[in-house]
Design a protein that fits this description.
By secondary structure, the protein is an alpha/beta fold. Helices cover about 45% and strands about 15% of the residues.
Amino acid sequence: KGDVEDIVKAGGMTWTLLRPGYFLTNLLPPVVYWMYPEFKDRKFFNSYEADSVLKLVDPDDIGAFATAAFEDPKKFGGHIVNVVGENMRVDDMLNELEKASGQSITAIYQTEGETDSAKGERFVAGHIVCIGLDRYVDLEKVKSWGVPPTSFKQFLEKHRYEIRAQ
C-alpha cells in the first residue's frame, strides 16, 4: 500500500488518500460467515486480544468522504484522511453486537503460539496487522473534516434486521 500511495502522491495530480478502518460489514451476513466460519455457531474465533482496539468504519462513510474530497479538492487535496467512526475494544464490540442481535457470542482468542503457526492465513495476518493501529487515529481530526462518521451503535441500528437474522 505504501508504494501505491507514493505513486499517487508523485503523480502530479491533486490527491487525497483515504485510510479506512475495520469494515463493520465484516460482522454482517454473509461476510461474517466467510471471515469467521465459526460465527455460525456464535463463536468469534480470532487472533486479536480481548483488549485490542479496532478502528471501526461503516463502509458507507468511505463513500461519503470520497464524495467530500471530490467536491472540495482544496480542502482535502494533499491530505491523508483516516476514515474511522470509532475506536473500540474487540470485547466491547462483541458485547454491543450481542445486545443488538439478542444472541450470545463467545469470543475465542488464539494463543500467541496458535497465531504464530497460522500467520500465513489471510485473516490471521489481517488481525495481526490491525493490532495497535488505533494509536494512529485522531477521532477529533476525523470529525474535523465535516463528514459525520457513523458510530458502531448507529451502524448496528441501521443493520438491525440483518444482525437479528444472524
